[in-house]
């Protein structure tokens, strides 16, 4: 008899031998005393449930079908070029670090501008950004193309006077002429549309490949037993209500519990929409690579992933969770990290 059938028959027998009230009271204790393998088999197959309720991340970002290696090279060059900021000390990659185990964040509570000024919001990861349907914490832009030029001219970021200043700096560097002509041979001029599309092409290459995806796609050994326990808890707590889909969040906006200490100088999505009910609404972040992106929340006010889990339990979860369950959830969340960025 298969493992799943054995586990299911065990639970049926337990239910028939107890009245329903006693069964409900004894279920947690009884299940904890069973081998983990029997528990997995006794309930809906964990892989199938995770595949149905979460899914795996596609291997390529939507819209990347027409991106060429030359476009990607140009986009990466622009992304890493410090000379494209007002005082030539900052690039996109200054805040969105990609080296080592970095996944496009800077480890700071809020972003630093080209003159060292502090921004209001935490730098979001740009890994998997091609799967988002809006960009920024307040969702004020609808695509990578729409947002591509903003950091160059934002006075709290790279602080150029205008997009014309950006074009002048690109034209002043001889290597860009060849890069643009290679990327856009039919229209080789250095122009803003090409800047936007090449940056977008590069950013679409930043796609995570996690052990969790391997598990959902059929490898039962890709995540550990402890990570499976955490996944089970994540599903049981319906964390997917906010952190939905293969991105595990990123595509909806929420206002946290009234206990959250909001900055009155940052009104969130309201600043973009002007709709009163949008005050203090911010994007629900994707949990992809979450173990690598501390500090947390839109204002970077939470330093550890454990504390972030505790806070979300306080604000949103259907029931209080124990410290052991906090550890279990964090263990699962670590399985969402890009495999090339971890030692596991």
TrEMBL record:
Gene3D superfamilies per UniProt: Cytochrome c-like domain
Protein residues bound to heme c 1: 92, 95-96
Keywords of this entry: Heme, Iron, Metal-binding, Oxidoreductase, Periplasm, Peroxidase, Signal
Record: residues binding heme c 2: 239, 242-243, 312
Necessary cofactors: heme
GO cellular component entries: periplasmic space
Main location: periplasm
Cofactor details (free text): Binds 2 heme groups.
Compartment(s) where it occurs, according to its Swiss-Prot or TrEMBL record: Periplasm
GO molecular function list: cytochrome-c peroxidase activity; electron transfer activity; heme binding; metal ion binding
Cytochrome c domain: residues covered: 70-174, 225-337
Record InterPro entries: Cyt_c-like_dom, Cyt_c-like_dom_sf, Cytochrome_c_Peroxidase/MauG, Di-haem_cyt_c_peroxidsae, MauG/Cytc_peroxidase
UniProt PTM: Binds 2 heme groups per subunit.
Name under which the protein is recorded: Cytochrome-c peroxidase
Native organism: Leptospira ognonensis
Lineage: Bacteria, Pseudomonadati, Spirochaetota, Spirochaetia, Leptospirales
């Amino acid at each position: 008899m298969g493992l799943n059938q054995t586990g299911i028959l065990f639970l049926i027998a337990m239910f028939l031998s107890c009245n329903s009230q006693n069964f409900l009271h004894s279920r947690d204790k009884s299940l904890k005393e069973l081998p983990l393998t029997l528990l997995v088999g006794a309930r809906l197959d964990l892989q199938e449930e995770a595949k149905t309720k979460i899914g795996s991340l596609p291997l390529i970002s939507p819209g990347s079908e027409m991106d060429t290696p030359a476009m990607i090279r140009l986009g990466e060059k622009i992304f890493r070029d410090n000379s494209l900021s007002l005082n030539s000390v900052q690039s996109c990659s200054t805040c969105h670090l990609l080296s080592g185990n970095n996944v496009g964040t800077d480890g700071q509570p809020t972003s630093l501008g080209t003159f060292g000024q502090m921004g209001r919001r935490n730098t979001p990861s740009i890994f998997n950004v091609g799967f988002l349907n809006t960009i920024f914490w307040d969702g004020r832009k609808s695509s990578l193309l729409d947002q591509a030029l903003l950091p160059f001219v934002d006075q709290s970021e790279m602080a150029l006077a205008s997009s014309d200043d950006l074009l002048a700096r690109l034209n002043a560097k001889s290597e860009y002429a060849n890069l643009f002509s290679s990327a856009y041979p039919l229209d080789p001029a250095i122009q803003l549309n090409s800047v936007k599309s090449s940056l977008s092409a590069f950013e679409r290459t930043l796609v995570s490949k996690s052990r969790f995806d391997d598990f959902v796609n059929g490898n039962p050994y890709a995540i550990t037993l402890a990570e499976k326990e955490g996944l089970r808890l994540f599903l049981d707590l319906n964390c997917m209500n906010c952190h939905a889909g293969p991105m595990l969040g990123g595509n909806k906006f929420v206002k946290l519990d009234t206990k959250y200490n909001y900055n009155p100088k940052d009104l969130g999505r309201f600043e973009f929409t002007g709709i009163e009910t949008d005050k203090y609404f911010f994007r629900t972040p994707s949990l992809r690579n979450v173990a690598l992106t501390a500090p947390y929340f839109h204002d970077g006010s939470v330093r550890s992933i454990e504390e972030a889990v505790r806070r979300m339990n306080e604000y949103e979860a259907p029931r209080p969770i124990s410290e052991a369950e906090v550890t279990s959830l964090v263990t699962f969340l670590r399985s969402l990290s890009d495999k090339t960025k971890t030692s596991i």
